[in-house]
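Hey, I was hoping to borrow your eyes for a little while. I've been staring at a protein lately and its backbone has me curious. You're getting the sequence in one-letter code plus the fold written as tokens. Would you mind checking whether the tokens look sensible for this chain? Here's the protein in full, and shout if anything looks odd to you:
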Amino acid sequence: MRPPLSYRIIRQRGSHRRLASDRGYPPISYAYHDADTVGPAAIRRVLIRQIGLEPSACEAVLRGEDLDDQ
């Protein structure tokens, strides 16, 4: 679990993972290989498209800020 969104893996089958947030954010599904690096653009797309964050909130998350502090 990692603040500020508090997602954790709830299910995994191969490289496909399903994450749930303890803070009530929508679940995330994605395919990820441990040897790959996920770039900031891909993370930004997930935060905006799957979770529904505004771009300014997305930038705050990428900086490691807690959304509750805003």
User: Anything to note?
Assistant: Helices lie at 40-50, 55-62. Residues 7-64 form one domain. The longest strand covers residues 7-13.
